[in-house]
Amino acid sequence: MELVSLRNVGFTYAYGDKPALNDVSLTIEPGLLYGVVGLNASGKSTLCSVVRGIIPHFHHGELTGEVKIKGRDLLEWDPAELSKSIGYVFQNPFTQISGVKDTVFEEIALGLENLGVDREEMIDRVTTVVRELGLEALIRKNPNELSGGQRQKVAFASIIAMDADFIIIDEPTSQLDPDASEAVFGIIRKLKERGKSIILVEHKIDLMAEYADRIIVMKAGRVVMEGPAREVLVSDELSQAGVPYPEVTELAFALANAGKPLRSVPITRAEARELVSARIKEAPHAHSAL
Ligand SMILES: Nc1ncnc2c1ncn2[C@@H]1O[C@H](COP(=O)(O)OP(=O)(O)OP(=O)(O)O)[C@@H](O)[C@H]1O
């Protein structure tokens, strides 16, 4: 069964002057990682909020069209039940921290407490995720004293600990340095390997190329393309939506423009390395291959 289906969905915020989503039709299949890309204000977070039921349950406005989550109409879902069923890492980690817990350890455990998980299992799950994300040094700190990057990691840890089978992650690395971003993507890779269904909003297109199975491209509230990452990340629609190509894709296009196309257009570094080394082997004079 489809995990999510949207048919002709529109949404205008209560105080919005134009639709944040406009005639969006989309299907999300289970077990895949969907990357959502688009310029600022193109509707990515709003799309996540609809799928998570924050719209219309908490953010008010005019929702039109049909939204089904796990086969059931969004309006029939109890918001509390939906929040247990879908993990959501917000874009702004300041929104996510509860403010009611004194330590990071308790903060990460809060979601499990709400799910009614027993104490021993709770400690076990929190300890595991703390280790996975390298948060040992923070567990006794007050969540309110953390930096933006630290909060983002703690928010992420809380959701991973809840172990939902469907997770929405809105720009998890916006406050993180490159090393911490790598660590977070390492966790996303593990979630993928565990068969989780994931919707990920992320501006870093090279990371998307590495991790996403399918890509949703948004422009001015509309979905302008949805398809396999390999097709979308080399498409005209991507650049028409103002989204850059992956670095290696850009380089391959430059080579093609210079009359030296590679056999196919890579989207990841590993693919680019293979294509370039194949080209060097084929060329009679290695130095003129590229
Ligand atoms: N609470 C709100 N009330 C009114 N308008 C809003 C609200 N939240 C978002 N919007 C508007 O809805 C549109 C889509 O915003 P949204 O945050 O979904 O875009 P986005 O693609 O996630 O942007 P970003 O990459 O900057 O996070 C924008 O025009 C934005 O100003």
From TrEMBL:
One of its GO terms (molecular function) is ATP binding. Signal peptide: none annotated. InterPro entries: AAA+_ATPase (IPR003593), ABC_transporter-like_ATP-bd (IPR003439), ABC_transporter-like_CS (IPR017871), ABC_transpr_CbiO/EcfA_su (IPR015856), ECF_ABC_transporter_ATP-bd (IPR050095), P-loop_NTPase (IPR027417). It comes from the Bacteria. Residues 4-245 form the ABC transporter domain. Keywords: ATP-binding, Nucleotide-binding, Transport. Belongs to the ABC transporter superfamily. PANTHER family: ABC TRANSPORTER ATP-BINDING PROTEIN MA_1418-RELATED, HEAVY METAL TRANSPORTER. This is ABC transporter ATP-binding protein. It comes from Arthrobacter silviterrae. The lineage of its organism: Bacteria, Bacillati, Actinomycetota, Actinomycetes, Micrococcales.
